[in-house]
């Protein structure tokens, strides 16, 4: 496939880039700083701002699918508005170019006992604005009628680890293991994302993964 990957130099984006390239896909890595893109066979870096819908449309026009690992910038006090602006532009570009899009969001909008994690008392303050932005971006996607989309939330805990390609899939609730923990390696999150790109099973839905 020809995959357009937005945010390809970030923590999750770099791992998706590696996974997609390892499967032989051609990847257009769309970033603000092309020099930060990891070098893999079949990868071409393209400079574009995620909030510029016209530039994004041009960058994704020759691709089969768009994967967005865009993030408004952890630690940026304006992350909420930047994340929403970028998310809106990415969806607008996908709509205009008539491309399927997979959006990587956070775990904050997953539900436990009918309540989203980001609204709980134990959710870290440092991540609240970003999590709320990702939640609102998901709500906006769910209102879309002209875009073929999927949205993936990682498990509650995500960290670098092992690529096992063995995990379970859920919907709006976290996947918990036998110990009551919800976790996934970023490598296996990337597996799930590229799997969805190759064989869509969650069109028009949010899904999550965990062990």
Any overview of this molecule?
The chain is α/β, with parallel strands linked by helices. 33% of the residues lie in helices and 23% in strands. The chain has five helices and twelve strands. It has helices at residues 11-22, 53-60, 79-97, 125-142, 186-198; strands spanning 2-6, 26-31, 43-47, 65-68, 100-104, 111-112, 115-116, 149-153, 157-159, 168-170, 183-185, 205-210. The strands form three sheets. The chain has an eight-stranded mixed beta sheet with strand order 3-2-1-4-5-8-12-10, sandwiched between helices. Strands 6-7 form a two-stranded antiparallel ribbon. Helix 1 links the parallel strand 1 (2-6) and strand 2. Helix 1 (11-22) packs across helix 5 (186-198), helix 2 crosses helix 3 and helix 3 packs parallel to helix 4. The model has no long low-confidence stretch (mean pLDDT 96).
